[in-house]
């Protein structure tokens, strides 16, 4: 039997219908956004180790505030937190006109990092999940938006010109 | 000399993703900062091209007001 998060994750993405909706609260969210973006929220904190980062998911995503950003101290907030914000679509170099190529490469080039679906509260609106399904969720916990420690595979996946 | 991992990063790599409450946010964030500092300071992976951005990468032709709020912002920072 699946817990509620797993049921959410296993539900087939309703990608086409949701992506064409004009209401801002149903726009897909980029799960590796920048804090300055409009409507950006913090949904996770990168913990684990340097070698194997693991995202800790907030039970309730929080709006970005100066106080939260200041918690990152001497490093950039994107080295510590994961932010979600409405997908920039063609404003982002990863968008190929229909899909997020970063999500595609993540699923096709990186191994699954966990064997249990993460307890993520943004999943219903996550572009990566809507596009790639649970396969994206299984790789999400190792994603660090701005990362000084990465593998060659991660570098190639992150490169929008790949 | 080999780098000794910090206490913050020892023994947690195999942990499955956790869910954290708002009241624990500050402590978890502090541990995250320690991990990030350690990542920056590891000599064995200081690469000449710096960090990677694993996420949104702005198209230079985009209209920033379509993405940022009225206060604006600085792409990629």
Task: Write a structural description.
- The complex is a heterodimer of chains A (162) and B (77).
- Chain A is 29% helix and 20% strand.
- Chain A has helices at 4-10, 15-19, 66-70, 77-80, 101-109, 127-132, 134-137, 152-158, and strands at 29-33, 41-48, 53-63, 81-86, 146-147.
- Chain A has a 4-stranded antiparallel β-sheet.
- In chain A, α5 (101-109) packs antiparallel against α8 (152-158).
- The radius of gyration of chain A is 15 Å and the shape is globular.
- Chain A starts with a helix and ends with a helix.
- Chain B is built from 1 helix and 2 strands, in the order βαβ.
- Helices cover 22% and strands 5% of the residues of chain B.
- With 77 residues, chain B is mainly alpha-helical.
- Classes of the chains: A alpha+beta (162), B mainly alpha (77).
- β5 of chain A pairs antiparallel with β2 (52-53) of chain B.
Please provide a brief summary of the model.
Chain A has helices spanning 4-10, 15-19, 66-70, 77-80, 101-109, 127-132, 134-137, 152-158, and strands at residues 29-33, 41-48, 53-63, 81-86, 146-147. Chain A is α+β, with helices and mostly antiparallel strands.
List the helices and strands and how they pair.
The complex is a heterodimer of chains A (162) and B (77).
Chain A: H1 4-10, H2 15-19, E1 29-33, E2 41-48, E3 53-63, H3 66-70, H4 77-80, E4 81-86, H5 101-109, H6 127-132, H7 134-137, E5 146-147, H8 152-158
Antiparallel strand pairs in A: 1-4, 2-3, 2-4
Helix pairs in contact in A: 5-8
Chain B: E1 19-20, H1 25-41, E2 52-53
């Amino acid at each position: 039997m699946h817990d509620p998060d797993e049921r959410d994750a296993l539900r087939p993405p309703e990608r086409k219908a949701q992506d064409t909706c004009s209401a801002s609260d149903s726009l897909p969210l980029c799960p590796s956004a920048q804090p300055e973006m409009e409507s950006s929220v913090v949904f996770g904190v990168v913990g684990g180790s340097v070698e194997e980062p693991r995202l800790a998911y907030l039970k309730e995503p929080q709006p970005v505030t100066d106080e939260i950003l200041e918690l990152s101290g001497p490093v950039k907030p994107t080295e510590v937190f994961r932010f979600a914000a409405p997908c920039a679509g063609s404003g982002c170099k990863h968008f190929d006109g229909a899909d997020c190529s970063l999500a595609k490469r993540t699923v096709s080039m990186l191994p699954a990092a966990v064997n249990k679906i993460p307890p993520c509260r943004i999943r219903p609106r996550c572009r990566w999940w809507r596009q790639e399904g649970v396969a994206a969720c299984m790789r999400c916990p190792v994603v660090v938006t701005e990362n000084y420690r990465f593998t060659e595979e991660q570098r190639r996946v992150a490169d929008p010109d790949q | 000399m080999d780098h000794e991992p910090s206490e913050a990063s020892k023994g947690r790599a195999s942990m499955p993703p956790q869910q954290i409450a708002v009241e624990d946010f500050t402590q978890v964030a502090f541990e995250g900062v320690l991990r990030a500092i350690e990542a920056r300071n590891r000599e064995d992976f200081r690469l000449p091209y710096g960090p990677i951005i694993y996420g949104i990468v702005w198209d230079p032709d985009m209209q920033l007001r379509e993405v940022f709020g009225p206060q604006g912002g600085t792409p990629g920072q």
